[in-house]
Amino acid sequence: MRFQKIGSIGLITLLMTLLMGGLGSVALSQKQPNGLSGNTVKAIASTQVLPSAKQNQSNEQVLLDIEGELGDGDQVLPQDGSLYDEHTFEGRAGQSVAIDLESDDFDTFLILLDPQERIVGQHDDVSQNDLNSTLNVTLPVDGIYTIVANGFDSNSRGRYRLLVRTPTQSASQ
Q1: pTM
Q2: Which residues, at least 6 apart from 15, have a Cβ–Cβ distance to it below 8 Å?
Q3: Is residue 123 included in any domain, yes or no?
């Protein structure tokens, strides 16, 4: 699916790959600097996906695959002046998820918030030589989780890829 919004803050493009069979729903919202929710886009999609597209080679299911960009007009974290985008997904208590935030343009910083906006986990660098971020967590409660795709500092700008995946349930479960 591709959503485009053209407004006073410019062109925002969100490319989302929804990999699931049957019906799925996506809700996107943009928070304003004052903390109030701004524009909300909701979509319900019926998809026919080939079984091979649902899983990657490591037998995991992709929940979210987003290409985004940090730049002028994005939200700013008051603590350090860094830019960030928010992305949401629906999770279940006990569900294991792996979240990767990758960029060739800037040093990434990743934060996962639970439905009550408490920090579930955060991560900076994979290693001293790899400035991408990754987080492997077991979700504590059912609900809508928020991923904060952030740059490490106020100079962090550019394109990124956010990938959320979970182990596939075996047919015997």
Answers
A1: 0.63
A2: 2, 66, 67
A3: yes
